[in-house]
Amino acid sequence: MKNxxxxxxxxMLFFQGMLWSQETRTLTLQDAVGYxxxxxxxxxxxxxxxxxxxxxxxEVRANALPKITVVSNTSYNPLTQKVILxxxxxxxxxxxxxxxxxxxSSNMVQLQQVLFNQSVFMGxxxxxxxKEFYLVNAQLTEEQIIEKVADAYYQVYQAEQMLRNLExxxxxxxxxxxxxxGLYDAGLAKKLDYDRSVVALNNITASKQQLLxxxxxxxxALKFMIGMPMDKGIDLPEGTFEPSxxxxxxxxISERTEMKVLNKQLELxxxxxxxxxxxxxxxxALVANYGWLGQGPKFPFWHGKKDKxxxxxxxxxxxxxxxxxxxxxxxxxxxxxxEIEIEKAKADLKETKLGLxxxxxxxxxxxxxxxxxxxxxxxxVKLAEKVMSDxxxxxxxxxxTLNDILDAERDLADAKxxxxxxxxxYKLAEIQLLKSEGKLxxxxx
Length: 445
Known about the structure:
Blueprint: H1 2-21, E1 24-26, H2 29-39, H3 41-62, E2 67-76, E3 82-86, E4 94-98, E5 103-117, H4 118-185, H5 191-226, E6 233-235, H6 257-277, E7 283-296, E8 310-322, H7 330-396, H8 402-436
Parallel strand pairs: 1-6
Antiparallel strand pairs: 2-5, 3-4, 5-7, 7-8
């Protein structure tokens, strides 16, 4: 009995977990964008790059801080060097003198401090600019994520709207089948007409299954885009295709993140050029040493004077000055290369500004054209609905053929789909307009 209860409990937890994993949530565009910025790998890598910038600044700053090292060398000399010296007691003779001992141990603590090194100071300023570049680039990455998520989001909504249009068309065709069946049962319609209407109904039913697959695929694409698990269910709220952008006369291109990134890249290239120039500058460093020297016939570390091992300390303080005189025009060549890279960056900046201006004008034009198209398609849908109703009535009185009904149904379906596509074009143009104005982050509010 206890085993059965345990098994029942496990099964309840299992099925409960499945229900939770399949829970459907209503996902607004703001929710989708926020989820992506929290979970998408690109956003996480951009945040890690900011931390990398902090680490780079710390690395460069370390070059200006004092460095302390400990060096220990112990050596055994099986054969010591010998020199021949005059015998001071007997000038006519010489004597052989050994240099050094069998064992020698040198243990040194060294302090190094940079007093002047222009490349170090320049590198520190460049590192700070690199951190700022990572910050701006992270913002650009987030805006690119927002743009992709918005595009994928509206693709889902379009697929769902196309499915609704087809379901409406399926309902209309079903009514047509019912009408023709009633007329056929009453002997007022041909069996051929009834069979053709059923075929049309079956074709629409088959198309519905295809659209259901399209909706599911577009939802999966959206979930991948925002980093959401595939087993999570999502629904989009009504009114997603409603216009939401206020048009402005002119966009401030200088506030575009792309421009900020390029300007920061140009700044980094200028710092690189200055760093190359610092190869001409002298450098000054303070070096201080203090250590112990042990010598004797035995291993020095645990022997003393009684074993003829003698220890002595030593110290030195020095000032190192390095003055470059000539390096074969290497520095000049590096500076020339840096200047070329700066000019190339300026050309990219100019080209990008022109492209952003064009994108803004194109977005305005697309929005205006889409607005006009939406108005025309809305009127066209109303007209197609009226034609459908009139054609069905005329068929009942023998004033229209089945072909007329099927054509009217097809025209109505096309009109609704064209309206849906026009709304999608409008929303995609909204995204491009917000992007050209540097206001993509408005989609997160």
